[in-house]
Amino acid sequence: MLDPNSKAKINHGVAICHLDTSAWSPTHGTFLTLGSNPGQIEVCDFRNNK
Fold first, then answer.
1. Phi and psi based region of residue 34 (left: phi greater than 0; alpha: psi -120 to 50; beta: remaining)
2. Beta carbons within 10 angstroms of residue 31's beta carbon
3. In the chain, where are the structural domains located?
4. Is there a contact between 48 and 11 (Cβ–Cβ < 8 Å)?
5. What is the 3-state secondary structure (H, E, C) of 1-48?
6. Using one digit for the tens of pLDDT, what is the confidence trace for 1-50?
């Protein structure tokens, strides 16, 4: 992960993964960006834990 301000590598953070996206809207930005559909992929968010 990179610090969003300095772009330095950091070794602390949290990943939150949504394993079941089947209930999400097919027009969710993630699916539009990745060219996928609900229930076909897992989606993870990465947060800096500072």
1. alpha
2. 18
3. 13-48
4. no
5. CECCCCCCECCCEEEEEECCCCCCCCCCHHHHHHCCCCCCCCEEEEEE
6. 777 788 888 777 788 999 999 999 999 999 999 999 999 999 999 887 65
